[in-house]
Amino acid sequence: MLQELIQVFIEQFDFFIHAFFTHIKISFISVYFASVLGIGLGLWISKHKKYAQGVISAVSLLYTIPSIALLGFLISISGIGNTTAIIALTLYGLLPMVRSTYTGLLEVDPALIEAARGMGSDEKQILKNVKIPLAFPFIFSAFRNMTTMTIALAGIASFVGAGGLGVAIYRGITTNNVMMIYIGSILVAALAILTDGCLQLLETYFITYRKKGLAFIRYSFRFAWIVVVLVLFPYEYHSNVIKIAGKPTTEGYILAELVSITIEEHTDLKVKLTHGIGGGTGNIHPAMVKGDFDIYSDYTGTIWQVVLKEEEPYNERRFYELNTKYLMEYGLMFKGLYGFNNTYGLAVHKEIADRYQLKTYSDLAKFSNQLIFGAEYDFYQREDGFNALKDAYHFQFKKVVDLDNGLKYQAMANKQIDVMTIFTTDGMLTSSDVVVLEDDLMFYPSYLAGSVIRQATLEEYPQLEDVLLLLENRISDQEMAQMNYEVEVLNKKPSEVAYAFLKEKGLLKK
Prior knowledge:
alpha/beta, MetI-like fold, D-Maltodextrin-Binding Protein, domain 2, 3 domains, 22 helices, 11% strand
């Protein structure tokens, strides 16, 4: 196992190193803002004690909000990317800094403060020369804990299309690549331990040489904002750069790579690719409308029901109607359908299928009250998701479980769930002991996959139309399932699989 771990790390060294340094950037910027704001608030409430309980309660409330919920809320305000992750991590870091600063200042012996006043010191001098030096051990201890916590929590950044080692972990979960999960987790732990060790040495030095230590911290925070501004707002020349988003599924990774490679192969345009954005269509669609992304891959049935909110059943005869409404309402359109139909399905463990003689969804309904159902999180919120399916077939499952898409097959193999949603092009279907049931009431519409592009992007770069049409009707259901299989089971990289497919189809010049 160790040998395989090292081999994967070496093979994808550039990816892991980039993720590692991005993780450092996101974590340390968040630590800086949490420290400045937290210490500032702590100092303020120490002078205005009547507001202390209210401020501490407010930051405590922020601390209790689940990270995913907070990120989901922030996306609507600050959009996709590192900025949203930094805001969330900063908010989580406020509580320990506010509380420790306030408590540390309160613990200062009043006699020492009175003595300083008696010697002619004003309030500013007392704060600088008495209160802060004596409260320093409280504040720095909280700073150490907050820094370690922030580094560990920064893995959630991948949910909003930000970078960091969470990308490696989440990609590993999604593509069933255990080595990616291990390496990402080890690097996060190593970074946290190393940082905490360095801070421990600094704490010892600062306590021993308190005057020098406080001066160092003061000047560090005074000038650190310059570095933060340069990192957060670097000068980038965005001309001829196409921003592509990818959904957090194996198929999403592969399709994003297919589109990216094709564009760079047949144009002079450069591509900025953001993989694995949590929430899929729900988060990518508003980012596309806003202009954060130019292109992503989605499905006709999803756009019809989830985005356009149409209640009538969809079939591909209505594609022109769909694309027209999509363009009129959001300035987005499908340009080039790939050819495969990745619709939803229900699968049960083979043992369950044999025991109850299950072949169709209607068969399943008769025994659903004895079975456990599992699906990815967004399935329960979709218009074409759990509630609609349950009503159509009158399912009454014994228990319903929320799972990450990459963990469903493992959960079924471990017999933790009996029924699960699947996509008909899942690579794991060919190697798993599951039975796909027949949708006998034809509940699910067609879900042809294709490239979605902003009208504004197509007007600016008209050459993209011919390039995206190169992928039209190029991928069959079986070919997509095979590519998913190669990533999920054979542990190939999505970019490697996409490149090989394009080469086989003659879509590469070399």
